[in-house]
Amino acid sequence: MGAAACAPAAPDLPAGGGAAAGCRGCDLYRNATQTVFGEGPADARVVMVGEQPGDQEDTSGLPFVGPAGRLLDRALGEAGFDRGEIYVTNAVKHFKFVERGKRRIHKQPSRTEVVACSAWLATELELVDPELVVCLGAVAAKAVLGPATTVGELRGRVVARGAYGVTATVHPSSVLRAPDRTTAYADFLGDLAHIRETALR
Asked: What is this structure's pTM?
């Protein structure tokens, strides 16, 4: 069915978030605790799009509050961004996971699930009307620009998408999983600093 069948024309972000809370556009809502909509200023110049909520986001209802979110906050500050001026969201609004004992382990959403949720992301981008969209990871890049898009082709450059530019870097969770976390973090920080220095007018 997809979110388009559930998503009314939203006059503002709170209305959009309220509508998304009742979304039944795919089956992910069945096991997730709640919908996790985006958060941040309605007039943000920058929107950062991740993949999906994690375990802590699913519990709290807020995006990027778990380990990856804390790493993102640290890197944004070091790169010269004001975190409070950025709108953060995810391509998919429900947590997809597999259970291992008492733990819920992230499972990557399918292309069908990303497409099913696309109306909510489109609503957020329309309402915020940002100057720049930063895709964090491959799932986000494909959600914004299409399934043939890769992070590698976007990393370090900006492409036009309607009224805003789009660029990409890795998802902060990949930094946490990296064998050499110090180097991975330095590369991630370098991407954000480059974006801050070159991509914003």
From this structure: 0.94
